[in-house]
Each structure stands twice: as structure tokens, then as C-alpha cells.
Amino acid sequence: MNAMRTVVSVTGLRKSYGAHRVLDGVDLTIPQGTVFALLGPNGAGKTTTVQILSTLIKPDAGEIRVAGHDLAREPDEVRAAIGVTGQFSAVDGFLSGEENLRLMADLLHLGRAEGRARARELLERFDLTDAARKPAATYSGGMRRRLDLAMTLVGTPKLIFLDEPTTGLDPRSRRTMWQIVRDLVRRDGVSIFLTTQYLEEADELADRIALLSQGRLVAEGSPEELKRMVPGGHIVVRFADPDGYRRAAGHLGATSGDDAGLTVQIPDSGGVRTLRELLEWLDTHAIDVAELSVHTPDLDDVFLTLTQEPSAQRPSPKEPSR
Amino acid sequence: MRAITDSVTMTRRQIKHLWRYPTLILTYTGVPVVFLLLFVYVFGGIMGAGIGGDRATYVGYLTPGIMVTTIAGAAQGTAISVAIDMTEGIVARFKTMAIARVSVLTGHVLGALVQNFVAIAAVTLVAVLIGFRPSASALDWLGVVGVLAMFAFAITWLSVGLAMVTKNVATASNLPMPLMLLPFLGSGFVPTESMPGVLRWFAEHQPATPVIETLRALLTGRPAGAGFLEAAAWSAGIALLSYLWARRSYNR
To answer: Where is the ABC transmembrane type-2 domain (chain B) (predicted)?
Structure first.
């Protein structure tokens, strides 16, 4: 693996809290300039992974290189190359947006003029100029996240960790945040390490996705590769009467049927052609259909298939009260 | 070098907080001022007689104790502001930046010192208004500021350490509360000779007493004597142990 083009490489990462094994041998490689998403249910170890890679806590075992530096031996060099925006906003609520950015500039020793210019530029870019002099405590959730990310960008990091960046944001703010992330990669050439529990978010943003379940990576690949890993594409037909259901069920190559619901599931292997043939067949045999729907596999299917949870419920996105 | 510039930056941050919310200082001067008025006007007649003088004599006796009470009160403010930082995401940001790690704490401590001196000045002003007439020379005043700075520095580091015992802001604000008792269980309000056995022994062997006695001597233009060294030793000891403790908790 070419070290110049890899921004994160992790081998055999382990971390336990007492008897509880949070990370149990995780291996990761993230190419520079890409968005990597770590997906997993609550408690899978996503935040622990980010905390270790961003030097907040120490791993029990593992070879880790971040931005070309050994994490254990050169933590300060790693810190100089990364930026972290966590799920709890890391802004100083007593200070104004501009003062928060200037604080970062001072800590990075940018110098007065440069610090001021950088703050102004970031306020402009993140649409915070009007609120620049108001205390950050008065900002809305979306504005706080934008300020948070702007603070992370003062130091022009090579790699940014985004730990659940849109948790608790309304749909509009979420979309703004996604656009910001895309721009970061496209315009600034930043690499992104994203954790999220919104599958849609990973699908929208990530070049590669890894699924973390009970401290292990259970799958890794592009969103498309992951979707191909699970059988999910199918057509569901619900018949209008039991007679039609009986006549059709044997002929359609249905993989599963539901006698009571008068419903069959047909694997969708040929896309539109399968659908047209199906409709023609039903038409020819004059069978009444109450409902017909086409399902393409999504990351939800992948997620539910590959992450073994004790309860097989569909995970609902958590809605924090903040 | 980086430790110094980063600490200056962090101190500036604390002073901005103070500047933005000046009511915080009022809160920390409120309690000592109430004690001052209460003890001078309610108990002052009896107390003054007890030390062989009158109410006016007692104002002079009491003021050094009130100064130390102010330091103990401000410690609660420090603990609150440190605990707020530790519970918010901002400390994770500081920890993942390539800055001098301890600067987050030194910023709090230096900011708190500024706050301490503003509060002590305000309380002293009230004391002067109600009849406090110190007879200290310029050099004595320098000594007063020095002793107050030493002790405030020590107590502030202690409150930073205490604030990191808990992740809870309310608990953090209560932990330094017993410090308010030190001037009472020392020579802050009455001479230790008037106390019964065990209490008197404690009063004469705890840090607030030599600090108060030194301030009292300097403010009345008497030589500080051995009390000064004792106050310095206590302050240095508390500051060093608390600093090491706070730094360890922070790095964990």
C-alpha cells in the first residue's frame, strides 16, 4: 500500500472497557481524498473508533497510521493534520461566531491579520456573516454545526472526522451539511471519515462504507457493492381475490407467498423486462391486481442483513431532544 | 514557548467570558459582602468588645478574613466554569488540536486570578466605605497582593482539580463549598485563642489562618513574621499537588 496515498491505515485495532470488548480487531484503509463512512447500530463502536483515531483515547492494540504519522509515537503530528467535528457541538457558547474562529486561529498561531482574514472567509463560506457577532449560544442547531465545522477548517486539515454530523438536524440543514461535505472533498481535497446511523447519508456521501457490528467490520465496499451483497430486488404483487392469487401463484416463479394477504414476492432479475412480462401475463389471464410495487435493495437491507442485532427491528433514526 | 502563547490565548478566552458576563463577579462578591455587613453591623459591637476594642476595631480585624472568604467563594465559580468546559464538546476539540495540552487549565487558572482580584478589590472597597482604615505602607500592600495571589493561585488549582472529579456542573459547584468554612474555622472572624481544644488546634494548623494572620499584620503595618513563610509553604504545597492532580485527571 502506497503510504502517500493512504490517509488512514489501521490493523488489528482493539479496545476494551473492562470485560466489554468495544473494538475487536478492526482493519481499515482509507485512500486520500475520499469519503469513508463507518456505519453501525448504537454501541457498535463507531464513536470509540473516532476517539482513538483522533488521539482522544488510547487503543489497547493495533497499528495505526493517520495522515502519514504513527498515532502512538507522533500524536501531535497527527493532531496537526486532522480536524474533528463531533456529535456534540464543540463551540464556545459564550463567545461569538467570529471570536470562536479567532480563538482557533490564535491556537494555530496564524497571526492577527491572517487569523482575521481566515475567520471572515469561513463566516462567508458557511453563511454565518450576519450572526458573526452574536454569541454562539444563541445559534440554531444547523448554525452551530456549521460554525463547528468552520472552526475545524481554520487549520486546513487533511483529514476531517465527522462523528454523526447531522444527528438532530432538520432535513434542510442536513442537506446543507451534505453539500458542505461534498464541497470539502471536491474543492479542498480533504479526506472525510464519517460516522453515521443514517444509511441515506452514507449512500449520499460515501465512496466507501464499512459496517461495524459488535466491534468487528462485517462488510466493506462501495454503496453499490454493498447493495449487491444482499438479495433485495423484488416485485410484490397483491391480488384482488383468492381465485386470482391461486391461479397466479404457481406460474410467476414467486419466491414467497402469503396466502392470507394474497401477496406474492417475485425476484426482480431483469428489471423493466421482468415487469413488462409480468404485466402481460396478468393481463392475458385477466387476473385482477390490487397493488403492485417494485423494491430495489437499499442500504437498510444490507444493514439489517449484516448487523446481527438481538432484536430484528428496523432501526429508527434516533431523534435527540436537542 | 507554545505553552506560554497557548496559555495566553486561553486566558484571553476566560477574560472575554468575564467581560461578557460581568454579573458573575457580582455573584462572587455578593456573599463576602453580606458576611462583611452582617458581622460588622450585627455582631460587630460584641465582637469588637471581645478583642478589646469597638465596632471600628472589628472592621479592621475582619477584613483580611473576608478577603480569604472571597477567594474561597470565587473557587466555586472556577469549578463551575471548568466543569462546563469539560462537559461540552469544546474540550474534545482542544484535546485533538496540536496545542500545549495544559493551556486549557492554565487559561482557567489565570482567568480566575483576574476574577479573584476584581472581586477582592470590590469587597475591600466596601470595607473601606464602612470604616476599614488600613495603615499599610506601599511595600506592605505589595506583600498583601503577593499573599493573596499565592493563596488564590493555590485554591484555584484545587478547584480545577475538584471540578474534574465529576462531569456534573451542579456537583462541581458544590465541591469547593467547604473552603468557605476555612476562615470561620480559623482566625478569620474571631481569635483562635477563644476556641475550645480540638477546634483551636485545627484552627491554628490549617492554611487559611497563616494567610489571614499575614494579611492582618501587613494591613496594620506590622511585620509579617514567620506567618508569611507558613502561608507561602501552604500555598505552594496546595498549588503543586492540585496542579499535578488536575493535570492527571485532564489527561486521562
So the answer is: 23-249
